[in-house]
Design goal:
It comes from Amycolatopsis antarctica. This is S-adenosyl methyltransferase. The chain is α/β, with parallel strands linked by helices. About 45% of the residues are buried. β3 (about 110-115), α5 (about 115-125) and β4 form a beta-alpha-beta unit. It is built from eleven helices and eight strands. The protein has one domain (about 20-270): Vaccinia Virus protein VP39 (Rossmann fold, 3-Layer(aba) Sandwich).
């Protein structure tokens, strides 16, 4: 197969892509990179991140997210899955990028999706450290699953007739309710065959009133930079993967982050 360095989805996304090339404005991907302790960020990202950190334990949230993604990835690989589709891969400090040596092993295929061209450019450079000819970095909007799934990157890299690990960690809380994130995830879920895995981590509504106030203040900060976040209840997030087999991976939840993973059951199990 002939894989390009960076692919573009076949069709124009249905929603406009924010201008992430404006480095004078804080950016969620770079803020997350700062929280992870890396350097793919600017002074404005660091300043904004420090404001958020006054309200939320952002580094703990990142640590829990990384631990969750690590557990799910190794669980899926240990159970024979050799294909990975990462939605909202983020900067090279994202959870999945910590395992590039593993994902570059022969026989493993991967597609990394992000709609920020700065992010995908950084990921393209980072991938050179662990080259894998059976991987693609796709610049596309995950909110348009039909375009992502029909893209050349996905069609030529992944075999959707075989099990896939779909990772959507710390990304769907960037999708507002009006874009129907549950329906978006359901469309990806419908494209997966039995034996596939789904993993979602998401900002969640905390139980304690004082934590709820802190979260609300932090969400207001993100609204101030026109990159809003949406928290959702644990019950709603669990419902997104209802009907699937829960995956016995370690739980790395904290008051502000909910993690849930599941396996698409075999056809005979679903018929029983």
């Amino acid at each position: 197969m002939n894989h390009s360095t960076n692919a573009t989805a076949n069709d124009i996304p249905r929603w406009p892509t924010p201008d992430f090339l404006r480095f004078e404005q804080p950016n969620t991907a770079r803020i997350a990179d700062w929280a992870a302790g890396d350097s793919h960020n600017t002074a404005v990202d660091r300043f904004f991140g420090e404001q958020v950190a006054i309200l939320l334990p952002v580094r703990d949230i990142v640590r829990h997210n990384v631990a969750f993604a690590t557990d799910v990835l190794h669980h899926a690989l240990d159970h024979g899955v050799r294909q990975v589709l990462v939605l909202g891969c983020g900067m090279p400090t994202g959870p999945i990028w910590r395992h590039q040596a593993t994902l570059a092993q022969p026989g493993i295929r991967a597609v990394y999706v992000d709609y920020d061209p700065v992010v995908t450019a950084a990921c393209t450079l980072a991938r050179q450290q662990h080259p894998n000819p059976a991987s693609e970095i796709l610049t596309a909007d995950l909110r348009d699953p039909d375009t992502v799934l029909a893209s050349t990157a996905v069609r030529t890299t992944l075999d959707l007739a075989q099990p896939v690990l779909l990772l959507a960690t710390a990304v769907l809380h960037h999708v507002p309710d009006q874009h129907k994130p549950a329906d978006i995830l359901a469309r990806y879920r419908d494209a997966l065959v039995p034996g596939s895995y789904l993993a979602v981590s998401h900002l969640t509504t905390p139980d304690k009133p004082e934590d709820h106030l802190r979260l609300s203040a932090a969400l207001n900060l993100y609204c101030s930079i026109d990159q809003p976040l949406t928290d959702r209840s644990r019950r709603a997030l669990n419902h997104w993967l209802s009907g699937l087999d829960p995956v016995p991976v370690g739980h790395h939840n904290d008051p502000f982050l909910h993690c849930v993973a599941a396996r698409v059951p075999d056809a005979d199990a679903r018929d029983r």
